[in-house]
Structures are given as structure tokens and as C-alpha cells.
Amino acid sequence: MDFSDKKIPDALPVLPLKDAVIFPRMVIPLAIREEAHRRLVDDALHGDKMVLTVMMKDGAEGETTGMPEVHRIGTACHIMKLSKMDEGTVVVVQGIARVEIKGVKQGEHYSLAEVERLEDIGHSGKKIDAMTLSIMNLFKEIVDLSPHLPDELIDLAKNIEEPGPLADMIVSTLNLDRHKKQEILECLDVKTRLERITRFLSEDLELQKMGRQIQDQVKKGIDQHQKEFYLKEQLKAIQKELGMGEDEGSEIDELLERLEEKDLPEPVKAVAEKELRRLSGMNPASSEYTVSRTYLDWILDLPWNEGTEETLDIRRAERILNRHHYNLEKVKKRILEYLAVRKLNPAHKGPILCLVGPPGTGKTSLGRSIAEAMGRKFVRTSLGGVRDEAEIRGHRRTYVGALPGRIIQGIKRAGSNNPVYILDEIDKVGTDFRGDPSSALLEVLDPEQNFSFSDHYLEVEFDLSKVMFIATANQLDPVPPPLRDRMEVLELAGYTEDEKLNIARKFLIPRQVKEHGLSRETIIIRTPAVRKIIREYTREAGVRNLEREIGAICRAVARGVAEGSEDLFDVSAAAVQEYLGNPRFTFDLAKRTSVPGVAIGLAWTPAGGDILFVEATMMPGKKSLNLTGQLGDVMKESAHTAMSYLRSKAIQFGIREDFFAERDFHIHVPAGAIPKDGPSAGVTMLTALASLLIGRPVRHRVAMTGEVTLRGMVLPVGGIKEKVLAASRSGIKEIILPEGNRHDLDDIPEKIRKQLIFHLVNRMEDVLVLALEEKKDETEKRSHEASTAKQASEEEGK
Asked: CB atoms < 10 A from the CB of 756, how many?
């Protein structure tokens, strides 16, 4: 029924609505719950059946007295039907026209409003037609997407010719916000009304599309879950028929539960799910079942995303390093700098540190202290003797007994993806027909590559970029240059006597006393005793043998305590020999260099520095130079160079020009079981030969090192710090060094520098002046020459 032309009274009873907006021509049922509103509807039914419906403003719902605050524009409605039920009264109204409230008069039970009818401001033209068409298309899409909107609404909308009423009809059917509906109700300009409705419909359409997409995804997930459940039930029935039993099924369920709980990267999770599906279809008695099960265990046990939280307190880290390690200031400084950068920039990809030094200097234990200082897990892998590339990258699963490589195994042991990882003895990695492990380490130790490390066993990438790798080595020469280039080298030289003494008192003695079940009340090892052990029982760069000797004393004391002795064992310097036997090292330098032809050189070894005796002698022969003592090619070449130089400078040094004509020379370097090589013994060999030919012994407290040229120049060499420390341990007082090694003296502890006299030289003439003993008086000289002439004539007569 059309009431659009019905006359509207000047005053209408006000029916305030909380969450509804009624538009003209729309038929809406309203639930009447308040007694005042029931009386209002009854009075209207007995009159002209007209009421004013208007929406309350926000906050007006809580008002209990008087008429609540309402919007200025509402809708004059005709009451079409009234139904009274047990739940309440329902009245059906139809909107007639927009009206504006001009004033409100409060009645006894409800309010009356003075109203004025409002008419639409119409427009026509192509733009209005286009906007109308756009609204219809949007409305059609919304109806198609909405399950609760019937398709008949589209036909109803098509029958409305006027754009204003069409807009009202569309807005009234949609589930829009009540404020948006009120905004449309108050809009009298049809063009503006169409623009706003277009915006509202576009927003609602996007929400509808998004909701449909979410529903489709949920439905798809539910369908997939139902499918998997159905297939699993079928699989259980098949397994039961095959006699597999329930244990295998529970095993699969356990793996599935672990897989769901494990936080895996998406590519890894996809591989694990695929492998689990394969496993569920296998016979547990087959060998492939065990291989697949082991693989899944590795995948689920690895810490793909589990790491420990770093503790980057620089002062605390410094205290920890100082507590566990004495001295090593240069190394500690670099580690603290690394931690400081990590604290300021957590994403920083730090360098791979390589600690190089003799055995027993604390390289591995330093890595353990770094882990404690950073609050990370610690793991160590020894690479000594590794010759198979598969030890690093793992074996492929096609091989029997295949396993991941040592790197992945270490990560699993750590249970964290960011441990401090020590790669011990990296210089002892070998190469053979099975591949080159050092090449496999290139990817592990490169911060630009190791975020996607590929292990042959896993066949999925593992992120190693969060791991702090620290390599250790005794020497750098065996490490391939590409691998060495990826690491920052920190050198740990040997310890001085005072440093060893402090390390023994602070670390070694307390540890050995505790390990042997002793206490301070049962044993005291005096400082002179420790110094005697260092000087006469151990001559090493590190402190490993020193700790062994201290342990030997503790064992002897432990036996006495176990036999019932209650005395305090006071270990003095005099008592050391009673516990350890006769000294192993003695300072016999004067005795060994008392005759011409013996010189003391300095050598660098992987175990630290050492002194080297070079002995030369001559005998009748036919111009030959014999070299013994397991000398390498470079060392042999140095000997020939020294001989050639002396022959060219014989007159200058007071040697007969033809001394080599009818004589053979023999150069021997004792400790012949130990291979020796390098150019730094050139100066020592030349000095030994010159001492022999001139007839003046080498001063017994002088040691030397340096490479010599055919022109007599002394060239710089390496390992100066280790060589100087070895000289100090052996009782040397003066050291002859190349001038080019002057800057290396800065690395030597100040106390050692004060104990020694350093001579820096450029030429061999200066070396011989410093090394050989002073000339004897002329009588002794003539006597020596006569003796030499007599010996020569006798040899000729023979």
C-alpha cells in the first residue's frame, strides 16, 4: 500500500529507536518493550495511525527520565499492523516521508514533536544515470555474495525508477552501521546521497569479498583435515590387516605430534611432512623404514629456531676472561671489542676468529670462557686428522650408516642455533682421494654464505650465521690461503717464566690439589719449587707439561695422605727432585760452545720457540759440504750460501783463500730426529763456520737468528717473540737480531726486554764482531798460526 501522498499532521508522537533507521516507503517491524511506547502506539491506532520514528544519539540510551536526545531528522511512519504476544508487542510500520523536528512537547506518557515534511532535491542527466547504474551493479554483487540477502531484492530494485527512493531502498536492506544510515536519511540532495551510497557500498563489497575468502580458506582447511583424518583411519585399518600392530601407528602419531609442536622453517617443515607420509606407508621391518625414521629424528632434534639469549655485559665478560686466563691482553681486548660491536649492532656479521699459538697456551679454554661471557652454549669439534669431505658436509642418505657432518652434529649437541663453536686443530685437516675438507670449511666459515649451509644428509639448508665460530691452530702455514683469508688471526705466543709462575699459582696448583683430593691443609707448593719445575723440568711455550709435573707431585702427596700421614707436605725447591727425579734440562751453554765451530741459533716450532745448536767441523777432503740433522731444502741452501760468502770474504776475515781446496766441511744440527727447515738459521751457520775457520769460539750466552744473503746482508725473519722467549728460558743473555725485526721487539714483555741485551744488525761483519770472543794476544795468535801450518803440512805429506 502506498502512503507517500498521505498528509502528515503538524504534530506526531515520538517513538525513539536505539539502533534502527527507517526510510520512506520501507516496511519495518518494531519490537515495543517499554510501557510508555505501548501507550503511544495504542493512542496512535485510535487516531490517524501516524508516529515519528527517529534514532537516538550516542549516550542517550542510558537516559531514564523524559525523552532521550534524538537526531533532528526522522521519518513519519504509518502503523500497518499490531501484534501482541507473550514476549512483547510487535508493530509493523511503513515510512512515509522525511521530516524535520521543529520542537518537542513533553506529554504525560510520551513526547509530541512539531514536524515539517522534507522533500528530496532532485537531479537528472547522464551523470545521475551513471551513478544509479553503478549503485545497481554494486548492490547486485553484494546480494550475490551475501547468503542472507534474497535475489528478489535485485528485481525489486530494478522496479524503482527514481534514484532517491532507489538509494533509500538499497541502504535499508544492507547491514550498514546505523550512523551511516542516519547520514543517508539526513541527505536531501539526491546526487550527494548517491555519492555517499556508492562509497558505502564499495566498502561493504570489499568486506563481503574478504569474508567470502576467509570462509573459503576455512572450509578448505576443514575439508583437508577431514580428508587426512579419513586417510589416517584407512591406513590404520590397512596396518592392522597387515599385522603391523599398534606400536608403529603410535610411533607415527608421536612423530606427527613432535612435528606439529616443532618450530620449523617452512621449507624444512614441507620436507619433514613429505618424509613422514612416506614413513607411514612403509613396512617397519624394511631397512628403508629405519633410514627414514633416523632422518626425521635428526630434523626434529636440530635447533632450527631455538637459540640462547645473549648476555652482552662487557664488564662482566672482562671479569670472566680475567678470572679464567692470565695475561693474553691482546686476545682479550679483541674479544671484548667483538662483544661491544655485537651489543651495538646485533645483526653484525662478525669475523671468524682464529687463535694461533703453541700447545698448552689456552686456545680451547679461551673459547669456553667466551661462551660463558656471552651466555651462549659451548661446543667443540676436533678437526685433527680429518681427511674426508663428508666429515664436514655429511654423507648422503643412500649410504649405509649415513650421518650428518661434524658441524651439524655439533649444533645438535649444543641444542642451540647460536653457540660458540670451537673448530680445534684446523691446521691439521688433511686431503686425500675422499675430497678436501678444508674446501668444505670455506662455506662454513664465510659469513656471507653460511646462512644457507647445505649438509648432504639433511638436503635442506641450515642457517649457521648466528653461530660464533672460533678456529684454533698451532701454525698457519698448513692452512690453505682461501680458508686463512676468511679468518681473523689472533696469535698467542708462549708464556714467560713469570707468567707461568702466576698461572701455576692461580690456576694449575688449586686445580690439581682439588682433583687429587687434597687441600691447603695437606700440601703447600712453594714459589721457588714452581720456578725450579719451570726451569729444570719443563721447557715449553705453554703450561701443559708444567701442570703434569705439579700433578705428579700431588699424586705422591696423595699417596702419603692415603697411607695415614697427617703431616703438612711442604714442597720446597730442594724437595722437587725427590718427587720428580733428576732435572731434565740444564744450562750447559758454556760447555757446548767452549770450542770454535759451535753457535747457538733460535728456531720457531709449532710448539713455540727453541734454541738450536749448530756445529761445524772440517777435515781433509775434496771440497765437499756435508749437512746432517734432518735439514730441509731451505736450510741446506742457507748452509751453502754461508760457505760461498766465507769463501768470497776469506781474506777480509783472515782466512786462507784456499781453505776449501783440500778440505771437507760438515755442519750438523743436533736433535737429528727432529726435522728442521727455514732460512732463519743462515746467520747461525755462517757464524759457526767463521768461528771454526778463524779459531775463535762463539760467546756462550749469545744466540742469533736471521737470513743471510750472498752479499752478507742479514734479512728479517718471523717468530721473533717465540724465539726470544725460548732464549730467555734457556739462559741466553744476548740476542743478535736483524735490523728489520726492530718493530717485533714491541711484542716482547717488558720484563724480558730488560733481562736481555738485543743487538740489531744489517750485515754479517757486525754479527761476527758481536758473536765471536775477543782476540787473544799476538803470541797466542802466532802459536795458533804455526800449529795450523804444521797441521796443514802434515796433511799434505800424507
From this structure: 17
pLDDT in tens, 732-785: 889 999 999 999 888 888 888 888 999 999 999 999 999 998 765 443 444 444
Q: Which of 356, 367, 602 is nearest to 493 (CA)?
A: 356
For the record, the C-alpha cell of 416 comes out as: 642451540
Distance CA 792, CA 788 (A): 6
How many C-beta atoms surround the C-beta of residue 412 within 10 A?
15
Q: How far apart are CA 344 and CA 341, in angstroms?
A: 5
Instruction: Name which of 56, 76, 55 is nearest 64 in CA terms.
Output: 56
Cell triple for 392: 664436514
Contacts from 100-109 at CB under 8 Å and sequence distance 24+? 100/72, 100/73, 101/14, 101/52, 101/54, 101/70, 101/72, 101/73, 101/74, 104/14, 104/67, 105/11, 106/66, 106/67, 107/13, 109/36, 109/39, 109/40
- 487-491 β-sheet, strand order: 378-382, 420-424, 468-473, 352-356, 487-491
Q: Where would I find the H helices in 404-445?
A: 406-414, 437-444
E-state strands within 251-405: 352-356, 378-382
Active site residue 680: yes
Q: Could you report the per-residue pLDDT of 407-463, keeping only the tens digit for each?
A: 999 999 988 988 989 999 888 887 777 778 888 888 888 878 888 888 888 888 898
Residue 793 pLDDT: 45
Strands (E), 333-434: 352-356, 378-382, 420-424
What gap in Å lies between CA 645 and CA 643, rounded to an integer?
Answer: 5
Alpha helices by DSSP H, listed for 613-666, are 633-648
What are the CA-CA distances from residue 472 to residues 323, 372, 605 (Å)?
21, 18, 16
Q: Give the length of the chain.
A: 798
**pTM of this prediction?**
0.59
Catalytic residue (choose from 180, 500, 676, 723) = 723
User: In 279-407, where do the E strands start and end?
Assistant: 352-356, 378-382
Q: How many CA atoms does the CB half-sphere of 82 hold within 13 Å?
A: 16
Sign of CA dihedral 677, 679, 684, 690: positive
Residues of the chain with pLDDT under 50: 245, 777-786, 789-790, 792-798
**Are residues 9 and 49 in contact, defined by beta-carbon separation less than 8 angstroms?**
no
Q: Per-residue DSSP letters for 18-40?
A: SS--PPBT-EEEEEE-SHHHHHH
Q: Hunting for cell 646485533 — which residue is that?
A: 346
Residue of 369, 680, 691, 730 marked catalytic: 680
Burial of 724 (0-12, 13-18, 19+ CB in 10 A): buried
Other CB atoms within 10 A of residue 478 CB = 15
- According to DSSP, residue 214 is labeled H
CA 427/CA 425 separation, integer angstroms: 5
CA neighbours closer than 13 Å in the CB half-sphere of residue 269: 12
Return the pLDDT at 776: 56
Of 528, 506, 527, 510, nearest to 519 by C-alpha is 510
Residue 318 dihedral angles phi and psi, to the nearest 5°: -65, -40
Percentage helix, strand, coil for the chain under 3-state DSSP, each rounded to 5: 45, 20, 35
CA 472 to the chain's CA centroid:
18
Q: Within 13 Å and on the Cβ side, how many CA atoms surround 684? A: 29
Q: How far apart are CA 696 and CA 772, in angstroms?
A: 6
Catalytic residue list contains 723: yes
Tell me the C-alpha distance between 589 and 598, whole Å.
Answer: 10
Contact between 629 and 636 (Cβ < 8 Å):
no
Query: What is the 3-class SS of 665-705, one letter each residue?
Result: EEEECCCCCCCECCHHHHHHHHHHHHHHHHCCCECCCEEEC
Chain-centroid distance of CA 784 in Å reads 72
